[in-house]
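quick one, 505 residues, struct below
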Amino acid sequence: MQFKNIPEVKLGIIAVSRDCFIRSLSERRRAAIVASCKKIGIDLCEVKTTVENEPDAVKAVAEAQKAGCNSLLVFLGNFGPETPETIIARDFKGPVMYAAAAEETGKDLVDGRGDAFCGMLNCSYNLGLRKLKAYIPEYPVGTADDIAAMVKDFVPVARALLGLSSLKIITFGPRPQDFFACNAPIKGLYDIGVEIEENSELDLLVAYKAHQGDKRIDAVAADMEKELGKGNTYPDLLKRMAQFELTLRDWAEQHRGQRQYVCFADKCWPAFPQQFGFEPCYVNSRLASEGIPVACEVDIFGALSEYIAACITEDAVTLLDINNSVPADLFAQDIKPKYPQYTLTDTFMGFHCGNTPFCKLTRRQDCNQRLGAINYQIIQHRLLEPQGSQPDFTRGTLEGDIQEGPITFFRLQSTPDTVLHAYVAEGEVLPVGTRSFGGTGIFAIPQMGRFYRHVLIAGRYPHHGAVAFAHVGKALWSVFSLLGVEDISYNQPAGVLYKGENPFA
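---
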């Protein structure tokens, strides 16, 4: 059975009403939002208790929790009582959004005027007094249809926050030597409510050996064969890799403890292939395609970032090196004629050995892009196996060119002094053959050159970045803000200088 690793958002709406305003106005507007949400496919549980005072707030929260709601929209249908409406966020254990009603018509501005525009200011002030964080849309005042659109934006943010609140990151082994760039203090995990379980590579090896002869191996290997199709270049590896996949799945089930969701950060070289007999990349890719990211090189904050992307998109994700520049001749031949909006320094090649899910590798037959297939890890073969020999235990990567389309490249990271910071950049993968190896794509991000220098280098970020296969910068920004991350960087447009950027350059 597929491991369910992404939360389901069950959203409720609580309307508030200041006792000197007309209560029915707030209730009528609440019902209209429920109807508007239903039109766009969002099931919004209508909490019938309207909050005018503190006992109402307690009652409404209890009603929402009894209905199974794990996220809330607190709706100011009129001015709203600032203390009771913020007590809701204090007492409800889950993400909370606030929005307010716009006035509906110039023909009814006496009994039909709610003054919620004004009420949102008092609401915000009271949230600040109580040190409560809530999701407030960019312009949090609107009609029923407007607020339904705001709710749609809130859902992926709520899903990520719910996931993080019950996430355990499971690691195996310390980071490889000379990869300290991915090392970061884990205190930041506890600051945002994430649990961690650190294990030895030997623990994993013992668990793997205990799965030898597991009756489920044949079924998993058959599923791999079906997924890979013509990319099943080493069929003799499948049972070994299936055994490893079952090891990780069982470990997740047996070790998540009080947490509902898990992801992994595993040491994948140099000892792993020698002891296990293959590279773990393809197995890692399969779990990532199900919302269970497995980060390479024990990159804990990489795994965390991948999981956030999985929650927001409900789609497969990957972790890539911000790896190498695009050669000028390749750019001139394959990119510049078709994509004149990009300069050479707007592009780069994202790479990893073979952890990108098969569903995110190209399937186009009408171009020079490589289709997904199992291969061997060229660099590790060079390092670990006899020179000139045929690949053996360094096989197991999933290689191919990454499919074209919109992406968001980002990372949540801890500094050495345990302060969380993040970057977010939207761009695209170009349908251009990489002519290289590994799971690789040619990425284009506007003003990438400046972003690379004044955010990634100046901010001392590691070489790993998480990739969401959609433009989700808006949701990511909201998630990071609600987590209390103050330093969130993005690729600033030309003419807008970064801190420390030389204005004369």
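The mean pLDDT is 94.
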